[in-house]
Amino acid sequence: MAQIQKIIARQIFDSRGNPTVECDLTTEDGTFRAMVPSGASTGIHEAIELRDGKKEYMGKGVLTAVANINDIIASALIGKNPSKQTELDNLMISLDGTENKSKLGANAILAVSMAMTRAAAKANNLPLYKYISTLYDPESKREKFILPVPSFNIINGGKHAGNALDIQEYMIMPVGAKSFKEAMRMVSETYHILKKMINEAYGIDATNVGDEGGFAPNLKDNEAPLRLINAAIEKAGYSGMIKMALDAAASEFYDGENYILGGKVDKSLAKKVDYSDMLEMYSSFMQKYPLIILEDPFAEDDWDSFVSFTSGYGKTHQIVGDDLLVTNPKRIKKAIEAKACNALLLKLNQIGTITESIEAARLARSAGWGIMVSHRSGETEDSFIADFSVGISAGEIKSGAPARSERLAKYNQLLRIEEELGENAIFAGEKYRYPM
After folding, report:
1. Where in the chain are the domains?
2. Which of 17, 193, 356, 359 is the most exposed place for a label (fewest CB within 10 A)?
3. Same fold flag, 6-125 and 145-431
4. Is the dihedral of CA 292, 394, 147, 435 positive or negative?
5. Region class of 279: left (phi > 0), else alpha (psi between -120 and 50), else beta
6. What is residue 429's DSSP assignment?
7. Residue 377 · residue 211 · CB < 8 Å
């Protein structure tokens, strides 16, 4: 039986140059490391990412969270078996004692939870993705594993870019690929064709990339990126094989009563719109383009709009809850009962432990939902979510564009997993919503 011998945390930096938490957990098998990402457009219902709030780093330091690991969590976990994931995750939750992990910080708790999972995988002599599959389904003895369809954010807007686009992410999904390797090739080619098109149309400055590696041209029309991307897909020769997805992140342009479009850069151009106007915009997009997924088309507490939209389009499209659900089992249960969406965006740091993340995935799957495992805009080189997506048979993953190493770390790990599995690797492809 492996035992935790030492836990040490430190402050490191994410892809935006902001502090974040890293944890090293040591057993007799070695030292196992985990790094925690950070979001920009965060839902108000997410577990708390504990920041110092002091002058240093504009208030974004995480030394308090680091100290909580070193001074509180470590003493409680040393000597215990890292394979007791649920027991130890629940112990950390109880040490925190708050509804939203605001005492110790979800960033502190998650760093330990992830490192513990890695240590347990080694103790059980399993690759990380295979060990996670035993946590997700203890009765499973499967040999074949599902590789998720990647969703690539190739044009950035919203809080991820300084342009005028209200919609945050314009993504492409190579559902027609036969393998993850082929999916990467298709998207890489399309991405570079798009880069050339943007360069020619808007100048070389327009191919600077946003937080997630997507281009951020100075477009003012929310439909313009769809036109560009569709043309790039056609030029690459992948019409019908590569589909589109949107993350509106609508909470970011909702004022509590209305949605505000067009005023991100110039407030004088802002226009108040209601549900019917939003519906008209989305419906137009779905009719004109191969758009199969809409994430957060409405604000995080605009339940009525989500329910109405899913009722109208849920049979033909995947309606993903991110800010609506925040990977929280309680909100997922509410959404299942209300039929507010039909897919979960699963972000580990929204809830704060591997155990709760797995519970969220099980709930979503029991309702027949799709599951998309997701990165955050402030990322690290940690590739944990790649293994996690395979371990829970998610069918979908998004980790940004095929650019920037903190994004590619996840995609490259999936290439390695597919290679390791050989004939036992099944690419989700067109079955991304129902991979099992």
Report:
1. 6-125, 145-431
2. 17
3. no
4. negative
5. alpha
6. G
7. yes
- In this prediction, residue 424 carries a pLDDT of 98
Q: Give the separation between CA 397 and CA 420, rounded to whole angstroms.
A: 19
Question: From the CB of residue 159, how many other CB atoms can be counted at a distance below 10 Å?
Answer: 18
- Cβ–Cβ under 8 Å, residues 375 and 38: no
Taking phi over 0 as left and psi of -120 to 50 as alpha, with beta for the rest, 332 belongs to alpha
Architecture of domain 6-125: 2-Layer Sandwich (3.30)
**pLDDT number for residue 41:** 65
Distance CA 376, CA 38 (A): 6
Which whole-number Å values give the CA distances from 98 to 47, 92, 94, 319, 356, in the listed order? 10, 11, 8, 31, 15
DSSP 304-315: HHHHHHHHHHTT
Q: How far separated are the first and last CA of the chain, in Å rounded?
A: 33
Chain position carrying tokens 């938490």: 21
One-letter amino acid of 158? G
Nearest to 296 by CA among 283, 284, 305, 287: 305
Q: How many CB atoms lie within 10 A of CB 182?
A: 15
Judge whether 344 and 369 are in contact, CB under 8 Å. yes
Q: Is 387 exposed, middle or buried (0-12, 13-18, 19+ CB in 10 A)?
A: buried
Which residues lie across from 170 on neighbouring strands?
155, 246
Give dist(CA 366, CA 344) in Å, integer. 12
Instruction: Please check whether residue 40 is in contact with residue 251, taking contact to mean a CB–CB distance below 8 angstroms.
Output: no
Q: Give the number of other CB atoms < 10 A from CB of residue 274.
A: 11
* CA dist., res. 356 & res. 354, Å (int): 6
Tokens of 274: 């209601």
The span from the CA of 146 to the CA of 118, in Å, is 20
> CATH number of the domain at 145-431, please?
3.20.20.120
- Predicted local confidence at residue 278, as pLDDT: 97
Any idea which residues carry the catalytic annotation?
212, 347
User: Model-level pTM greater than 0.85?
Assistant: yes
Averaged in consecutive runs of 10 residues, what is the pLDDT profile of the chain (436 residues)? Answer: 96 97 98 93 87 96 98 98 98 97 98 98 98 94 95 90 90 98 98 97 90 91 96 98 97 94 88 96 98 98 98 98 96 98 97 98 98 96 98 98 97 98 98 92
Alpha carbons 88 and 110: distance in angstroms, whole number: 12
CA torsion through residues 130, 135, 141, 146, sign: negative
d(CA 297, CA 314): 13
